[in-house]
Amino acid sequence: MKRVSILGATGSIGCQTIELIEAAPERFEVVALTGGRNVALLAEQAKRLRPGLAVTCHDDCRAELTERLLGTGIEVASGDAAVAEAARMQADWVMSAIVGAAGLVPGLAAIRQGATLALANKETMVAAGPLVLEAARAHGATLLPVDSEHSAVFQALVGEDRAAVERVILTASGGAFRDWPLERLATATPEQAATHPNWSMGQRITIDSASMFNKALEVIEARELFGLAPDQVEVVIHPESLIHALVGFNDGALMAHMGAPDMRHAIGYALNWPERRDLPVARLDLAATGSMTFRAPDEARYPALRQARRVMEEGGLAGAAFNAAKEAALDAFLDRRIGFLQMAQVVEQVLDTMSRAGALRVDIPGLDAVLGADAEARERAARISRTDLQTT
Ligand code: NAD
Ligand code: MG
Fold this sequence. Notes:
Bound molecules: nicotinamide-adenine-dinucleotide, magnesium ion
Radius of gyration: 20 Å
CATH superfamily of the largest domain: NAD(P)-binding Rossmann-like Domain
Enzyme class: oxidoreductase
Shape: globular
CATH class of the largest domain: Alpha Beta
Low-confidence stretches: none
Order of helices and strands: EHEHEHEHEHEHEHEHHHEEEHHHHHH
Domain 1-deoxy-D-xylulose 5-phosphate reductoisomerase C-terminal: 143-226
InterPro entries: DXP_reductoisomerase, DXP_reductoisomerase_C, DXP_reductoisomerase_N, DXPR_C, DXPR_C_sf, NAD(P)-bd_dom_sf
Pfam family, one: DXP_reductoisom
CATH topology of the largest domain: Rossmann fold
Cofactor: Mg(2+); Mn(2+)
Distance between the termini: 58 Å
Helix content: 40-55%
Number of strands: 11
Number of helices: 16
Largest sheet: 7 strands, parallel
């Protein structure tokens, strides 16, 4: 029996993880589940999976969760510290599927227990890659990528000499607006941005796909996870989303990972690793697919990709600041305080200001420095979004 915990159980990745676990009940014992405001769903999941502990990150949701789980014997807790406590319980395998930088501290807690951490939460590596890798090394924890592109790279690297890797190519669908004329992007609404041509995902990552902030985070994530130089990570637009990533080797070979755009593949691969087991995903019919297309991303349309390069060059706390500024800018866009294209302007201004002040410079950032840079960037981005955004 594998003892598993799911952080962010009620989200898009969390629900798909639970679906796969429930399909093989004899192989898994659930230790802890965490969620947010969707207490009805969290309670329902807990009644089915019988974890020892169920946690909502919101204290004002605790009473309802307690009431819904009355008489089940399942312990209930609430708040950020309780989420980290859930991650610290003795599990062999922990799914990190909280959205945003909020996933960092619980993920680190699981790593410090020596658990295998299935990493859907890309923000963890963007904000604190070196810190997370060092903690995993020190505690003998294994990191398994769940982001589809990174799972694809990970699979293409099995049995290969890492020193023979020349480059990694991440594919991007182009998101909701890939075929919109550039002038129209300024008018895009949150509702329009929250639809994805190929993947079904949580609201925030779907909007990040339209702006390419998602791909920008993934470029940094790939660099950190696979120990690459910034110029070894490339992005290509591939509207069909059938190739998830490619690895280029020093003999010119390109290994591509293909499959239907279905996160249950990457989740299932991490759940069953190092084995491969049957998964309920569609099998591709290449003849029916016919053709696949590729094109270079247009940096005028996607400033986030340029910013990712800058973040990798700056290093230090730039990833933590970049991600936090992006999260705050996305909040402002969702609240209709700023337009779609202004998200990148807000992030740029935050990076410029913090960089000029020397606030991003530090050799090996510790957790306090990362959380400090996150808080400062978030606060600056929120302030710019309220007041002095230059609409150029
Ligand atoms: P989601 O919004 O559907 O779910 C997020 C989960 O995190 C929910 O359970 C929510 O209750 C919980 N949560 C939210 N804020 C929290 C906080 N402050 N503290 C504790 N818990 C909190 O998100 P998702 O689409 O499932 O994405 C989860 C993570 O996986 C993200 O980092 C995302 O980038 C990554 N990811 C998702 C997909 C996908 O297909 N959805 C693909 C690749 C990577
Ligand atoms: Mg991805």
